[in-house]
UniProtKB/TrEMBL annotation:
Location within or outside the cell: Cell membrane
TM helices/strands, residue ranges: 60-82, 94-114, 126-144, 150-171, 183-205, 211-233, 254-273, 279-300, 312-335, 347-365, 377-397, 403-430, 442-465, 471-492
PANTHER family: MAJOR FACILITATOR SUPERFAMILY, MULTIDRUG-EFFLUX TRANSPORTER RV1634-RELATED
Chief location category: membrane
UniProt entry keywords in alphabetical sequence: Membrane, Transmembrane, Transmembrane helix
Compositional bias ranges of the Low complexity kind: 22-42
Major facilitator superfamily (MFS) profile domain boundaries: 60-496
Pfam family, one: MFS_1
UniProt feature, compositional bias: Gly residues: 43-52
This protein's name: Transport protein HsrA
UniProt cross-references to InterPro entries, sorted A to Z: MFS (IPR011701), MFS_dom (IPR020846), MFS_trans_sf (IPR036259)
Region described as Disordered: spans on this chain: 22-53
Source organism (scientific name): Oerskovia enterophila
Amino acid sequence: MEPPRPLAPEADVAEAIADSPAFGSPAAAAPPDDTGPDAHGPSGSGPTGGGLSPATQRTVMIGMVALVLLGAFEALAVATAMPTVAQALDGLTLYAVAFAGSIAASVVGMVAAGRWCDRFGPSPSLWAGVGLFLAGLVVAGLAPTMEVFVAGRVVQGLGTGMYIVALYVLVARVFPEDRRPSVFAAFAAAWVVPSIVGPAVAGLVVEHVGWRWVFLAVPFLAVPAVLMMRPGLRAVVQDRRAPDAADAADRGGNAALWWAVAAAVGIGLLHFAGQQEGVLLYAALVVALGLVVVSVPHLLPRGTVRAARGLPSVIAIRGLVAAAFTGTEVLLPLLLSHERGLSPAQAGGVLTFGAIGWSVGAWLRGKAHWGWPHSRFVLVGSFLIAGGIAGTALLAWPSVPPILGMLSWTVAGLGMGMVHPTLSVLTLALSPEDQQGANSSALQVSDALSAAIALAVTGSMLWALHDAFGLLAYVICFGVTVVIALLAAFVAPRTRVPA
């Protein structure tokens, strides 16, 4: 089979998007001099963890981790099963749409959930999100045509975006601050096993049971996981705000939803552009990027684009590191398989190296008592990402052993494991309780939009430069992502808010 085009959202792209920590990543307790109210402003963290006993908190955490684990397996399994699905349903022309539709819908779900969580608490958004996620799986698993399958994927993405944000808010409302590192660390660990064995398990299911069970089996496993979270959901009671404040929030939320729809259309067009050639490619790319760029200021906190001090810088860095990491990751399997002649399994193994590095970095960030302020973790992690990407660029030279590039990618993953938990902690620390949903939503939206743009830009760059520059085209693309990671390091000091 001919290698996929760089921008085609096949297994590599899907894994790159899915591996972005929209499902959470480990966080660390902040040093006392860098996390208190004097340093960050009002916090909705809550010292009591919703009044739940440690045993009940563990039960809730197990349910949350189980849901994250199933989501991770599903994301990787779908990427493995999609070629078979497209052939079975005679829908190769909708192959890209099946991925883009889910990603785009998740942005709408994130924005809706953010406002919903702030008004009613995380419970309604979590239940609705999981319900839509499971309904989408059932529709996709029973789909008689590719069009119905795509519709199921859109519903699934909408639900995914909703329950991701709800999980973040649930962590803030249920767990005291000193417990959050272990919760987020468990979230990150939940991605390791799926990253290693998920594609192989999905391949066995497709081959011996049938592709439909890749979708239909998950609901049977997800329901018990959600039920384990019920004690935490019952403990979180959100007082309704005053009518005037609620009405104002509703008006702002409705406007944000329309901008989220515009951004989702832009994401869909980005993936459509990747399947085109010539003038149509560039026209679709310009329109898509225009929609995303115009929408972003309405979906993120004011000052994010200029990386203003405090929360805007946190949200901005989340987007920068997502763009740097994802924009590189999607090209690595292509470089190793198409240019270096490695088998698909060997080329895909580089993603496992990154996942392992990510988990190690998250564990170190969550367990070690470094005594550093948050900003230093962001700074060091961003430099590790930049250095790791620079090391992987050496793979463009045929004389460089592949293992060297894979180890370099582990370093980049290590940096991500340090940066993302810190950004999660900072977002909650800088968020009053009635804004935890909106700010958690902004964090996820920044991640998703930046990753989608990075996929489009680096993929299109490679496609445009490869004929003229050959392997050097990869180096140019990796150089762009290195610069993006260094920009995150430059902004890192602005995440520390003085007393």
